[in-house]
Amino acid sequence: QVQLVESGGGLVQAGGSLRLSCAASGSIFGINAMGWYRQAPGKQRELVATITSGGTTTYADYVKGRFTISRDNAKNTVYLQMNSLKPEDTAVYYCNADIALSVVLSTVRYWGQGTQVTVSS
Description:
This protein is mostly beta strands. Helices cover 0% and strands 58% of the residues. It has no helices and eleven strands. Strands 2, 4, 5, 6, 9, 10 and 11 form a seven-stranded mixed β-sheet that branches. Strands 1-3-8-7 form a four-stranded antiparallel β-sheet, with no helix packed on it. Strand 5 and strand 6 (57-59) form a beta hairpin. It is elongated, with a radius of gyration of 14 Å. The protein starts with a strand and ends with a strand.
């Protein structure tokens, strides 16, 4: 059984900062890529940022220069530092991780339950 548990969401004023965390736990052999997505009301879920096990990062254009993704492989945890937040960043943020349960199994993508981020103007 694998679980991804997010924390760190909340209400912040425009221009403020938040840091999201997502910890994976359970019978984990290894984790490849980890990432963050978000979903605003009435919209489809969209990519925010990803990070490989080696630390290579990618960002959506709308967060470049404002958000930073990082991970602690020893803790099976991924972070999202969000600065200069805008009202349009308001959404439920979901983490995911591509997890292998053993050396012979392919990775499976797991998702967290989501954490609400609300940015007031």
